[in-house]
Amino acid sequence: MEAAESLNHRLWNLRKNQAQDWLKLNGHYEEAGQHYYFRTTIYRLLVLLKQLKEFQDQAIYIDARIAEKTDVLFLMYAKALEWTLTDVALFDGLPYDPNNATDHLFKGHIRVACEVCDGNNAKFPLIEFENCLRAGKFTEEFSPLYRFFDGLSANGSLRWDRLVAFHILLCSFINTFGYSMQRTSPQQIQELAKSFRHPEILANLMAWREKLGINSDKEGKKLKRTLKPIFKVIRKNSTH
Predict the structure, then answer these.
(1) What is the pTM assigned to this prediction?
(2) Do the beta carbons of residue 114 and residue 141 sit within 8 Å?
(3) I need a surface site. Which of 89, 90, 169, 215 has the fewest CB within 10 A?
(4) pLDDT digits 0-9 by tens, 55-85
């Protein structure tokens, strides 16, 4: 939850400051260690993905027949968060080449990046991560993440909408399992959803939440009610 909250704060900050070009490297990924905002954004995402990967690797011990409902729901959210970053089904109805990871990440690339962190240090603290980047390490292993975030802004790109979808599920995850002071209000989630540039992506997110198993719990139902009016608004705006 600490990793989720840390990334959540960064994503809200990115939304506020996306016009500042703090994530713009223009392909010079060997310089990632010299750009604070860029490297710490990658780090916060990697910390969360690494822990979600470790949880899923151990999920064989969660027996759905005897587990608490929240145990299974936690696993479903772990899979759903990965889904929003990697699955091209989020772009159904839009022209997109699924064979080229221009606006999504391949699962294999995420796993490689996480395994690099595992092999270097079990906890992989920020100082060690930064030292590795400054030394030019992991440029190849992290390059898919670098490409995804390089120059990312609310300019109508599919990448931005994918990150918005991820952020919405991240907020829902924190609302479900976090403390009350960590919660994101329905009004904040609605403001976040308004930044979608492609209504098809929000529609796909809403449809897939049920398939991903995160639609029927209390927070899932609330999120559905929260997103529905926003979808109608951005769909109407997209037709004008």
Answers:
(1) 0.91
(2) no
(3) 89
(4) 888 765 666 665 677 888 998 999 999 999 9
